[in-house]
Each structure stands twice: as C-alpha cells, then as structure tokens.
Amino acid sequence: QVYLVESGGGLVQAGGSLRLSCRTSGINFKIARMNWYRQAPGKQREFVAAITSDGSTNYTDSVKGRFTISRNNAWNTLNLRMDSLQVEDTADYYCHTTWKSIDYWGRGTQVTVSS
Questions:
Q1: 9 phi and psi, to 5 degrees?
Q2: Residue 95: which H helix or E strand, with range?
Q3: Residue 80 CB partners (closer than 8 Å, separation 6+)
Q4: Beta strands in 8-90 (DSSP E)
C-alpha cells in the first residue's frame, strides 16, 4: 500500500516562511520522482515543484527563487521550503508521485497566507 502524508501547513503572514513535509511508504522512494502540487480555492490543481531521483529540481515560474524542494532518502521524506510567502500562495498543497504507472496523492495540507 502506498501512502503519502503531508504535514507542516498553517497560517502565516505575507513574507513569512513555512516548511512542508511528505512522509512516504510503499514505494522505493530513492528512485521515485516526487512532486508538489497545490489547489487554491475555486481553482484547478497546479504543479508547484518536482525533484528527480538524482536531485534535479523544477519549479513553476511563480515560486522560483522562493520555494525549495528537497528530499531525504534516509527518511523517505519529501520537503518543500516556502519563503517570502504571498497571499497568492494560499492553497492546499499535495504531495504526488507516479509509481508503477499509478498516480498517488496525499490528502493535502492547508497553507493560508494573510496580508
């Protein structure tokens, strides 16, 4: 059974920081490409960041320079460091991977940025 469990969301003022984590089980985390997505109220889910097994990263333009995705293979954990948060970053954040051709999602963690 594959599990992805996010944590670390919360309420923060604009300009602040948060660190999200995603604990995983049921996959070979070391070789899995891992992604963060987010869904703002009333909007479609959108890609935020990705990290490959070799540590290569990719970000959507709106978070470049502010967010940092990382992975801890010893703990099978995916992280997202979010700095200089903006009101527009308010959303539910989801951990995602595709494993053996199946998409897996966590249940999400809520991030609210106040002005």
A1: -70, 175
A2: strand 91-99
A3: 19, 20, 21, 36, 48, 49, 67, 68, 69, 70, 93
A4: 10-13, 18-25, 34-39, 46-51, 57-59, 67-72, 77-82
Tens of pLDDT, residue by residue, the chain (115 residues): 999 999 999 999 999 999 999 999 999 999 999 999 999 999 999 999 999 999 999 999 999 999 999 999 999 999 999 999 999 999 999 999 999 999 999 999 999 999 9
* DSSP helix/strand/coil, 54: coil
Tokens 């869904």, residue?
39
Q: Which residues contact 81 (CB under 8 A, 6 or more apart)?
A: 17, 19, 67, 68, 69, 70
Is residue 102 within 8 Å of 96, Cβ to Cβ? Answer: no
Comparing CA positions, the residue from 37, 12, 11 lying closest to residue 22 is 37
